[in-house]
C-alpha cells in the first residue's frame, strides 16, 4: 500500500525548529526567545562552548517532530545540512527508510523501530522526500533540510602538500576508507561519544568551506583537535577496528565501526596501537597524536561517516541525534 503524506504544514513547522544566529545574539537570549534553556540548546547542538556561537550559525531549538502514520506514529529529529538525524517509528515490526538516495535500516528497540540518517554537508537546504517502507506500506513525506551555517577558511600549503593533493590515488584512498566501514549490524553503543583526547582544543569545525593553497575549494569532513605530539588518541565509543594502516593523505589512520553503518576515523596519527578485527571499548587508546599525511601541524582529525556520508561529529558528544 502506498500512502503519500503531502503535509505542507509539517514542512512549515520544521522550519521553526531552527534559529539562525544574528549579530549580537547570545545562547541565553536565544533560549529565552524559544522558551528553552541554555543547557538544552548545548545538548541539542553538541556545543563544546556555549559562549562561542557565531552570526549565521544555525541552531536547533526543538528536538523534532511527530507525525501520524497509517498504523502508528513517526518521530524524527530535524534534518540539518551536514548532520546525522534520528527517527523512531511506532506500530510496525520491521522496515527501512530512504532519504537523499541512501537506504537506511530500521532496527527494533524498546519503543519501536529506529534509525540514523545522514544529510551531506554540500546538500542544498530545501525540501526532500523521506520514504518509509513499513511492512508493505510506503509512506512518503517531505522533510525540510535546514542550512548548516558553515564558515570559510584558506589553508596555506607547502609545494609538497600541494602535490599530494593532486595525487591520482586520492580517490582510491577515499573509496578504501568508505569501503572499510561495515554497513551491517545494530549499533554497538548508546549515549554520547567520549572525547578522543584529553586537553585538546578544537581548531577547525566540521563543514568549514576550505580553499587549499592555490588549488581547489572543498569542505572539512571532520573535527580537528590540536594537542601535543604523542597525546593518546582514544576510541569515542565501542566498536571494532576495520582499518589500521598508513595512508597518503590521512597518514597513520584507524577506522572503527560502531554498527548501523556508523564509523569513526582517526587521521594523522604518529603511531597506531590496534589491529583490524580488534574489538575496542570506549576510551581505549587507538594510537598517538601526530602530523602524518596531509597535515600542517600536530592534530587529530576525527571523522564520522554514516553509510559513507561524512557528518558533523560535534552533536554526538551530547548524545545520539534522536527525537
Automatic annotation (TrEMBL):
Q: Which InterPro entries match?
A: Cell_wall_metabolism_enzyme, Dup_hybrid_motif, LysM, LysM_dom_sf, M23ase_b-sheet_dom
Task: Give the residue range of the signal peptide.
Answer: 1-16
Instruction: Check the record and name the Pfam families matching this protein.
Output: LysM, Peptidase_M23
Q: What is this protein called?
A: M23 family metallopeptidase
GO terms for MF? metalloendopeptidase activity
Record's keyword terms, sorted: Signal
SUPFAM superfamilies in alphabetical order: Duplicated hybrid motif, LysM domain
The organism is: Thermus tengchongensis
Q: Where is the LysM domain?
A: 17-61
